Known about the structure:
- The structure is a single chain.
- The protein is α/β, with parallel strands linked by helices.
- The protein has 4 domains: about 1-5 and about 15-95 and about 175-250, Rossmann fold, CATH 3.40.50; about 95-175, no CATH class; about 255-350 and about 435-515, Rossmann fold (3-Layer(aba) Sandwich), CATH 3.40.50; about 365-435, no CATH class.
- Helix content is about 30%, strand content about 25%.
- The protein contains 16 helices and 20 strands.
- The protein has helices at about 60-65, 90-95, 110-115, 130-145, 160-170, 190-205, 215-220, 245-250, 310-320, 340-345, 355-360, 370, 390-405, 420-435, 450-465, 505-515, and strands at about 20-30, 30-45, 45-50, 75-80, 80-85, 95-100, 175-180, 210, 225-230, 235-240, 280-285, 290-295, 300-305, 325-330, 335, 350-355, 440, 470-475, 485-490, 495-500.
- The strands form 4 sheets. Strands 6-7-8-3-9-10 form a 6-stranded mixed sheet, sandwiched between helices.
- Helix 15 (about 450-465) links the parallel strand 17 (about 440) and strand 18.
- Helix 14 (about 420-435) packs parallel to helix 15.
- The longest helix has 18 residues, at about 450-465.
Amino acid sequence: xxxxxxxxxxxxxxxxxxxxxxxxxxxxxxxxxxxxxxxxxxxxxxxxxxxxxxxxxxxxxxxxxxxxxxxxxxxxxxxxxxxxxxxxxxxxxxxxxxxxxxxxxxxxxxxxxxxxxxxxxxxxxxxxxxxxxxxxxxxxxxxxxxxxxxxxxxxxxxxxxxxxxxxxxxxxxxxxxxxxxxxxxxxxxxxxxxxxxxxxxxxxxxxxxxxxxxxxxxxxxxxxxxxxxxxxxxxxxxxxxxxxxxxxxxxxxxxxxxxxxxxxxxxxxxxxxxxxxxxxxxxxxxxxxxxxxxxxxxxxxxxxxxxxxxxxxxxxxxxxxxxxxxxxxxxxxxxxxxxxxxxxxxxxxxxxxxxxxxxxxxxxxxxxxxxxxxxxxxxxxxxxxxxxxxxxxxxxxxxxxxxxxxxxxxxxxxxxxxxxxxxxxxxxxxxxxxxxxxxxxxxxxxxxxxxxxxxxxxxxxxxxxxxxxxxxxxxxxxxxxxxxxxxxxxxxxxxxxxxxxxxxxxxxxxxxxxxx
Length: 516
C-alpha cells in the first residue's frame, strides 16, 4: 500500500486493476537523495498526476519508471506480477512508454516514418509507407484526434501536431502506461485544451496515464489521483475531489528559512537612486513571452522566477541576444541593443551564463585556463600584440582558483572532469575577468550540491556588490532567490504576473503566483 501523509482520504478502490506499482523506490546522486522510499500506484482507466517543484524528484522517478535510470532500492509490479525495469526496452516490454517534454523528429522524414522509427520491418522503405504501415498510423492518429496525412514531412508540422504524433507513436507500441512529461508546456491554450480532451478520451478507453505537470488547472480538470513529491519523498496522495488548489500548493511548498542577517541582501539596495544599468521595455517573442518590462540597477540582483514553460529561460536568452525577440527594447547603459546581436551585447559588457552548462557555458575537453580565455574581454596583459600569452593565462586562472576556491589540480586540468559546482565557478570567473557590466544567469545552481550552491550565491553577491554589476537571474528553483535577490519578478505563461521586493518574498508567495 502507498504511504499516505497529510490530510488524505482513502486509497483508490482495490476493484480498480493496478497496471503498475512502484514500491519503496530510492535513488541518490552525489550529495543529493533524489528519491527516498517512494510508492506509486497506477491504475487502468485513470489519470494520475505527479506534482512537485524542481528538485522534488519527479524527473528521477519517471526516468526510473521508464528504464532510463535504475533504482537503488525498491521493486515493481506490473498487473500484479513482480517485474524488473532496468532499461527502456524492459519498460516497453511491460507496456510503459514515455512521451518526453522535448519534441524530437527527423525533419526530412514523413511524420508517419517518424512515428514508426525503430519499429520498422525489414522491407520498410524510407520514402513511402506501406499500406499496412499507413493503416496502423492512421488508426493511432485517429485516436489522438489528428487529421494530418502520415506522408506529410515532419518539418511542415507545427508543435501541436508533433505532440499528437508523439502520443500516437506511444499508442502504436501498445502501451499500458503512458508517462507524459509536461505535455502542454509548449502549446497554446486552444491546442492544450484539444490535447487534454484527447487524454480524457484515452483515459475513458482504459489507458493508464501518469501526468507530470506544473499546471494545476489541468490537474484539477484531469486527475483521478494526485501524488505530490517534495525533496524526494511522497508528502501527499489524494483522490479526485478530496483537495483543492490551495491545499495542493500548501503541500508542495517548502519551508524555506530566510538566510542569516549576515548573508541577507540589504532591503535598500533595490530602492537605489542609481540609473538603471539594464532596461527591458515591452519585450515580446511569439509563443514564448509577451510584453515584459524590467530594470536592473548596478550593484543589485534581480530574480525572475518561473516553472517550466513560463518563458523565464527564453526571456533571459533573448535579453542576452542569444535568441531573437520580435518587438520591444533592450537598453544597456543607455545604448539600445539590436535583437539577436549577441556579439554586440558582449562587447558592451553583457555576459550570460546559460543553463546548459556543459553544452554552452564551458568547453568540456579544454582546460580551465583555456575556458577562462574564451572571453573576448580578457585582460590586455594576456592578449598583447594580438597574441595569446599562456603563461599569463595560467597565472590569471591560478588567481581565480584561489579566490573562488575552485577545486582542481591545476589550471591545465580539463574542465569536464570537475564537478558541476566547480564548472559553474569557472564560468563565473570568466565573468569577473571580463569586468561584466551586466550578468544574466539561467538556472545558476541546477544540479549542484548544497555547499556549492552557497558558494555560487556568494560569488553572485560579490560580483554585484564589489564589481557594481547588474545581475539578472532566471530560475525555477525559487528558494535560491530568497535572501539573494533584491527584487523578484514571477513569470507565468510568458508574462510577468507579480513583482515583490526581496524583503517581502517567501517561497509560498512565489509559488502561488508561478503556478498556472
